[in-house]
């Protein structure tokens, strides 16, 4: 008997399309990572804007470590 493959995950639910971001222990970085994870995968402009803000946050935090 040939059947169709089982259905995949429901991609309309954002919780099933993106895993939870890792916890770094740095509240500022963790907040920025969560913000990026909440952006819908099909919203490229928002993904880029949020990714750029995340990059700025990461650079600032690394700059703080450099003394």
Number of strands: 0
Task: Identify the quaternary structure here.
Answer: single chain
Structural class: mainly alpha
Q: Classify the helix fraction into a percent range.
A: 55-70%
How large is the count of helical segments? 3
Please describe what this structure looks like:
- The chain is mostly helical and 67 residues long.
- It has a domain at 23-65.
- The chain is 57% helix and 0% strand.
- It has helices spanning 14-17, 27-38, 44-65.
- Helix 2 (27-38) runs antiparallel to helix 3 (44-65).
- The termini are far apart.
- The model has no long low-confidence stretch (mean pLDDT 83).
Essential attributes:
3 helices, mainly alpha
Brief account:
Residues 1-32 are annotated as: Disordered. The chain is mainly alpha-helical and 67 residues long.
Task: Give me the secondary-structure topology.
Layout: H1 14-17, H2 27-38, H3 44-65
Helix pairs in contact: 2-3
């Amino acid at each position: 008997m040939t059947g169709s493959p089982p259905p995949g995950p429901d991609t309309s639910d954002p919780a099933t399309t993106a895993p939870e971001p890792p916890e770094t222990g740095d509240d500022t970085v963790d907040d920025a990572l969560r913000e990026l994870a909440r952006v819908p995968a099909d919203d490229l402009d928002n993904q880029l804007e949020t990714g750029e803000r995340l990059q700025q946050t990461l650079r600032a935090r690394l700059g703080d470590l450099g003394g």
